[in-house]
Design brief:
single chain; alpha/beta; Rossmann fold; 30% helix; binds magnesium ion; DHBP synthase; binds threonylcarbamoyladenylate; 2 domains
Length: 322
């Protein structure tokens, strides 16, 4: 699709969902809300459509994408589920968990989706609009976050339009995303489950469900989430983390009740779930109001539960840019 087509905003009703599905069937790109962030969807079986995702996002490499399906039955037509994967799918789907599993032969997915790997990353989202789009479309939808590559992920339809208007056919406006950070990505090696990306499902919940620890991803391991570039989620201006006493000229992103005078607070009550839901929205708001020479300083966020995902995104947002 050309770069100057008008992007339509669709309502999250019957008609909007049918339009979204029809556009996907025509090979177009459609953004839609999931409970984590807005996804940029394309028919995962259509090479041209999947290639358009990389083009629209300006994604520099053909990193593999997550496919989205409406339920476990459908997921089983694309991936092989061993007992641990079955247990996790039953416990946490629909929800913010992506499983990396062996791909079925003849799954019919575009090789661009999996970047030629034998595995496939698969997820069943919970958001009613995502469910509606998937059921109406009736096929697997490849969907990375609906933002230009390297920038802050979108948790509102307007965020999607800010970054991709004119480059995609439509966005379904389903309001704000409840979780606010991307799904937790879990892979498996010979020894058991491996955390490939912390995200919206706390790793503690996964370990409790399986009754075994979840390994951290080893540097240089064969299974990895290759999309995990170091600099990512980057605002325009610089960032500094773990700042309990901000410099007087900085914009301060607080967490918890002790951050009096913060420009914005992720959660006044110190609630990590609320903080995750606010994270990308607050980063965008601070970035929009910052002068070019101003820095965003962020208060310490505890490293447990959803704090793992929040700190992961903050570290990438603050990392040196290429
Ligand atoms: O919450 C989410 O997961 C959102 C919503 C839209 O569902 N999607 C999302 O997709 O965050 P994306 O493309 O931004 O992140 C996909 C991640 C990348 O880091 C990629 O490298 C990894 O999944 N991935 C995909 N397929 C993989 C595979 N076969 N093996 C290992 N990692 C894989
Ligand atoms: Mg992303």
């Amino acid at each position: 699709m050309s770069n100057n087509t008008k992007t339509r905003t669709l309502a999250p009703d019957e008609y909007g969902l049918r339009q979204a599905a029809a556009l996907l069937s025509d090979g177009e790109l459609v953004a839609f809300p999931t409970e984590t962030v807005y996804g940029l969807g394309a028919d995962a079986r259509n090479d041209t459509s999947v290639a358009q995702i990389f083009h629209a996002k300006g994604r520099p490499h053909f990193n593999p994408l997550i496919i989205h399906v409406p339920d476990l039955d459908s997921a089983e037509t694309f991936a092989v589920f061993h007992p641990d994967a079955q247990a996790l799918a039953q416990a946490f789907w629909p929800g913010p968990l992506t499983l990396v599993l062996p791909q079925r032969a003849n799954a019919g997915l575009s090789p661009l989706v999996t970047a030629g790997l034998d595995s496939v990353a698969i997820r069943v989202p919970e958001h009613p609009v995502a469910q509606g789009v998937l059921q109406s479309f009736g096929g697997p939808v490849a969907a990375p976050s609906a933002n230009p590559s390297g920038r802050i992920s979108p948790t509102r339809a307007q965020h999607v339009l800010d970054g991709l208007s004119g480059k995609i056919a439509a966005v379904v406006d389903g309001g704000a995303c409840a979780v606010g950070v991307e799904s937790t990505i879990l892979g498996f090696d010979e020894t058991g489950p491996v955390l490939l990306r912390p995200g919206g499902l706390p790793v503690e919940a996964i370990a409790a469900c399986l009754g075994k620890p979840v390994a951290a991803r080893a540097e240089g391991a064969d299974i990895s989430a290759p999309g995990q570039l170091t600099s990512h989620y980057a605002p325009r201006v610089g960032m500094r983390l773990n700042i309990a006493k901000p410099h007087h000229d900085a914009l301060w992103l607080g967490f918890g009740p002790d951050c009096e005078g913060a420009t914005l607070n992720l959660s006044l009550g110190g609630d990590l779930v609320e903080a995750a839901a606010n994270l990308f929205h607050h980063l965008r708001a601070l970035d929009a109001q910052a002068r070019p020479d101003q820095v965003i300083e962020v208060a310490p966020v505890p490293e447990h539960g959803l704090g793992l995902a929040i700190n992961d995104r903050l570290k990438r947002a603050a990392a040196p840019r290429d």
